[in-house]
């Protein structure tokens, strides 16, 4: 028996700390974008308080970019809320995959924890697998929340466009993080057909729709459908 | 300083509406799936969803230009061999260099 197989359960404080550490590379990429969003909000006429409340209560980056853009254009309130809903619809699918982790947790506590479910939170939580604890969840959540709130407010206070995050390749941080997380889901060549279907659908919808996040829903549905067909094919092979 | 504390009530109403619908998308997934027990095909679909979502998230940006596609391929190659922080930093360095070259 190797030493590795003897695991001592970590204390909640340790779990929280691990969550904070795992979140740091994501924070490095998120802060410049928070700044950028804040400066765009200032341009759209939002005050630092407006922006702070939006980051604190909505706490969903891409939908906030869309909302600020629409506010800048003077869109109707209901249209802005509708756009936020559409951009965040992908959370339904993400949350569904986390359901086993939240089984047995009282509704109120789960409802509060799920308030913090961003793309990054979801991906890190899923990677943690069955060992996921609420302490780890909140380690990630608190770090991201504070970083997002402070960077968006600071960006609004600073006003003008600070810098273009793409100049330092910081926009690639998100891509790299998501690719690393994707590698964790590799289950052999069987993973390939759903992923290729998702990429094809996402690219097609992205090319047809200007902006928004419809391509994420399209990719999820295409990948899920191919996986369902694979499972049906396997079931038939076993029955024969 | 006072302007930064100004609250626009019409914006605040939008923020509250946006916050409510966003929270509902976050709690809705586990709530729905706990009530509709999925069969074998649906389970497989659900199991494939995280990977498919990640692919869909990165595909348009990763394939937007040759430099980014090459850097993305590089990250995929090293992702399972080195810690995540190393892979992310290496990927960002690679993309900055490749964007200058290509």
Structure in words:
The complex is a heterodimer of chains A (240) and B (102). Chain A has 240 residues and is mainly alpha-helical. Chain A has 2 domains: 11-185, no CATH class; 187-240, no CATH class. Chain A has 11 helices and no strands. The radius of gyration of chain A is 20 Å and the shape is globular. Chain A starts with 11 loop residues before the first helix and ends with a helix. Chain B has 102 residues and is an all-alpha fold. Chain B has one domain. In chain B, helix 3 (66-79) packs antiparallel against helix 4. Chain B is flat, with a radius of gyration of 21 Å. The mean pLDDT of chain B is 89. Classes of the chains: A mainly alpha (240), B mainly alpha (102). Chain B: Pfam families: AzlD. Chain B: Keywords: Membrane, Transmembrane, Transmembrane helix. Chain B: The chain crosses the membrane at residues 12-33, 45-63, 69-98. Chain B: InterPro entries: Brnchd-chn_aa_trnsp_AzlD. Chain A: Keywords: Cell membrane, Membrane, Transmembrane, Transmembrane helix, Transport. Chain A: The chain crosses the membrane at residues 16-37, 49-68, 74-93, 136-162, 168-186.
Summarize the structure.
Chain A folds into two domains: 11-185, no CATH class; 187-240, no CATH class.
SSE blueprint:
The complex is a heterodimer of chains A (240) and B (102).
Chain A (H helix, E strand, L loop, with lengths): L11 H32 L4 H10 L3 H13 L3 H12 L1 H13 L4 H9 L3 H10 L5 H25 L12 H13 L8 H17 L5 H26 L1
Helix pairs in contact in A: 1-3, 1-8, 1-9, 2-8, 3-4, 5-7, 10-11
Chain B lengths: L8 H27 L4 H23 L3 H14 L4 H18 L1
Helix pairs in contact in B: 3-4
